[in-house]
Amino acid sequence: MDISIIGFTAAGQHTALDIARVLRGDGGGEHCRVFLKKQGLEPEQGVERVGGSLREWTGARFEDSDALVFVGAAGIAVRAIAPFIVSKRTDPAVLVTDERGTWVISLLSGHLGGANALTERVAAGIGAVSVITTATDVNGRFAVDVFAKENGLAITDMAAAKGISAAVLDGERIGLRSELPVKGELPAELYMVPDGTKKAETDASRPAAGWQIRVGIHRSAAAEGRTLWLVPQCLVLGVGCRRGKETAALVSFVREMLEREGICPEAVAAVASIDRKADEPAIRELAEFFGVPFVTFSAEQLMALVGDFASSAFVRAQVGADNVCERSAVLGAAADGAPGRLVIGRQARDGMTVAAAVRHRELYV
Fold first, then answer.
1. Residue 264 maps to a domain
2. Between 238 and which of 63, 92, 203, 328 could a Cys-Cys bridge form, CB atoms 3.0 to 4.6 Å apart?
3. What region does 125 belong to: left with phi over 0, alpha with psi -120 to 50, or beta?
4. What is the reported pTM?
5. Three-state DSSP class for 96?
């Protein structure tokens, strides 16, 4: 986590340094930068001076930091961040603490950005009082955005997430259906629905058509009631293509394949191929389109994988492996020493081949 901490006075500079020491040394190993915005005050060792305006500094930190900590008045922080706030999906965590380190306030992106958890860590480390105002935290209730973040699930609809939070605060119970194995004891606010991974309750108090959370890579248009889809990022695309293939054609091919198979594009976690394609623009740009890593494997690594794969003597003669897309997908989806599971076999079109495999994932409640 990249964290930027800024102070505005001599006392604020000391508190900022204390916070950095806590975050670097409490086991999280965070990367912290400490800044000072104060004319006439010499920065201490390890502190960077802010030469431009606070607005410029804040805009740059919104781009390169996961969290910002303002050591000073809350009003300074609010005015500084206001022009840059976009969405809780993308905004960094923002904290405020007074220059004496008495209070630590979670100001922005409490759940998805991690500000609430970071507030607790900072407060515990410097002996301050944490201030968290998120309704679900204040009331000790299930928070769907925290649940999603902790399980690496993409939230497909923030309005639906807000609806579930409101329902929880109103005392409603939320149905849960998961394609992933569910581990742990469900919180009181949740119940398993029929056809989930656990036997459904037969609870007369259970609402018949209330909110539901569905976890999985497949999305159905026929879901009953109000539904929030949470998508595990566990799908690896194995890709091969002819040299010089157009990016648009490859992206279109993959999107059509996912739509045909009913798989959410948010499930894509990586793009994989053979190392001979490491510099292929279309495949690299496909990974950029989905915002995921591009990984490659040698022909020897691909051929060492045991499994039932489509085989082509021609492909093997060209690149050293009899199948690039299926083997690279399964190898790329390996987790905890086990290979991934092939869910879409080799698909071919006009010099492009694509397959998909899933990593084993479990859902923790």
1. yes
2. 328
3. alpha
4. 0.72
5. strand
